[in-house]
From TrEMBL:
Annotated organism of origin: Candidatus Kuenenbacteria bacterium RIFCSPHIGHO2_02_FULL_39_13
Name of a matching Pfam family: 23S_rRNA_IVP
SUPFAM superfamilies reported in the protein's UniProt record: IVS-encoded protein-like
InterPro entries: 23S_rRNA-intervening_sequence, 23S_rRNA_IVS_sf
Lineage per the UniProt record: Bacteria, Candidatus Kueneniibacteriota
Top-level taxon of origin: Bacteria
The protein's name in its UniProt record: Four helix bundle protein
NCBIfam families: four helix bundle protein
Length: 117
């Protein structure tokens, strides 16, 4: 159940990322726009790849990559706000959502690490 909630939140984050990044300047299309979108999708794809694995070490590896992509998104969102590509409300919505996703991923990774001890 927890993983289903996480998948829904990541999916919402991806959709908002695409929606909000549409307003980035056209000269960012192959820079920040592309990087943010790829990182956002990477959060989901690596989470799902790990979720589908049986071996816990493999699962953990993919979830760590997913977590890293989430942190990458967090910085890009901050930079975009500083460059005034996002409104304050958009920034807060994305930041709160990616922080929540990151925390849920961290808990999932910690559970695996604790089972290995």
């Amino acid at each position: 159940m927890e993983n289903n909630i996480l998948k829904v939140k990541i999916h919402e984050f991806i959709k908002l990322t695409y929606q909000y990044s549409n307003q980035f300047p056209k000269n960012e299309l192959y820079a920040l726009t592309s990087q943010l979108r790829r990182a956002a999708v990477s959060v989901m794809l690596n989470f799902l790849e790990g979720y589908a694995r049986i071996k816990e070490n493999v699962k953990l590896n993919f979830w760590e990559i997913s977590y890293g992509s989430a942190r990458e998104c967090k910085y890009i969102i901050y930079l975009a706000k500083e460059l005034k590509y996002f409104s304050e409300d958009e920034y807060l919505r994305l930041t709160n959502l990616i922080d929540e996703i990151s925390a849920m991923l961290w808990v999932s990774m910690t559970k695996i690490k604790n089972r290995k001890l």
